[in-house]
Structures are given as structure tokens and as C-alpha cells.
Amino acid sequence: MRNILMVCTANICRSPMAQIVATQVAQRRGLDRGLRIDSAGTHATKGAPQPDSRAKLALEKRGYKVKKGRSRKVETKDFERFDLILAMDQTNLSTLHALCPAQYHHKLELFLASAQPDVHANEVPDPYYGSAQGFERVLDLCEAGVDALLSRLG
């Protein structure tokens, strides 16, 4: 079983979008056996809402089913439980390094690391304070990142 955690700040935009894309693309490709994908936020609050409505709309427009429950905060046990922990941006990665016990630092990386050099971005930008177009851009990056990740996992 491979366990992968997608991480952003509040777990309402980028990481749930990446989780939904990864889960459903893996299912479509028949790669979901032995693969568990979850998402969390470095600063998520308990009982925070489900994914942002603009994220849901962008996902649904491309045929993804949005089933993600409430957001959650990264927990100490996540560093042991997950095999790979993918941060959406450098700030999230730095926060994860600060929270993570040293013996698990090898599990931490940027979400788009596998997509280089095909994707001309190192980070997935936070679309929360922007327009619907920002969510479309995030979804483009999530699809590219997931494609590279699934190819890497083979």
C-alpha cells in the first residue's frame, strides 16, 4: 500500500483538488490498487468547510466528482503514516520540514517536483483570493502534477 498526502495551507483549495484529481485519474487508469491519497493543510482549522465552491466548480466542469469531506490539519502521525507528502508550495514545504521529525524528512517534497521540466512552475499558487481563472490554473497544474506522479509510481 502506498499512502500519499497532498498538503496546502487550509486544505480547501489546492490539496483537495490534487487529491480528487489523483484519486480519480488513478482509478481511470487502473492504478488505484494499493494507493491511498489524502489531503491536509498546514494551517487548517478544525471543522473548516469542504473545498472552496470555486474549486468544486472547476473540478466538476472537467468531469471530476467532488466527494472530499471537511478539511483537516496535518498531524504528527501523518509523517509516519504516509510514504510521500507533497507540498503545494515552498511555504507549505518549509512548514512541513519544521513540523516533521528528522527521520521522515525524506518523505517531503514539492507536488510539482515530478512534473519538471514539463511544467513551467515549481509551485501551485494559492487561488483563494483571486478569480475563478486562478482555480482553472490550479487544476491544470494538478492534472500535470498527478500525471507525472502516477508515471513515477508506475
What's a quick, concise take on this entry?
The protein has 154 residues and is α/β, with parallel strands linked by helices.
Structure description:
The chain has 154 residues and is an alpha/beta fold. It has one domain: Response regulator (Rossmann fold, 3-Layer(aba) Sandwich), CATH 3.40.50. It has helices at residues 14-28, 53-61, 76-81, 90-99, 132-153; strands spanning 2-8, 35-41, 84-87, 108-110. It has a four-stranded parallel beta sheet. Strand 1 (2-8), helix 1 (14-28) and strand 2 form a beta-alpha-beta unit. Helix 1 crosses helix 5 (132-153) and helix 2 (53-61) crosses helix 5. The radius of gyration is 14 Å and the shape is globular. The two termini are 13 Å apart. The mean pLDDT is 94. Keywords: Hydrolase, Protein phosphatase. Pfam families: LMWPc. Residues 2-152 form the Phosphotyrosine protein phosphatase I domain. This is protein-tyrosine-phosphatase. InterPro entries: LMW_PTPase (IPR050438), Ptyr_pPase (IPR023485), Ptyr_pPase_sf (IPR036196), Tyr_phospatase_low_mol_wt (IPR017867).
Share of residues in helices: 40-55%
Quickly give the structural class. Answer: alpha/beta
Q: What is the gyration radius calculated from CA atoms?
A: 14 Å
Largest sheet: 4 strands, parallel
CATH hierarchy, class: Alpha Beta
Low-confidence stretches: none
Tally the helices: what do you get?
Answer: 5
Overall pLDDT metric:
94
Strand content: 5-15%
Element-level helix/strand string: EHEHHEHEH
Instruction: Give the number of DSSP strands.
Output: 4
What is the spatial order of strands in the main beta sheet?
Answer: 2-1-3-4
Shape descriptor reads: globular
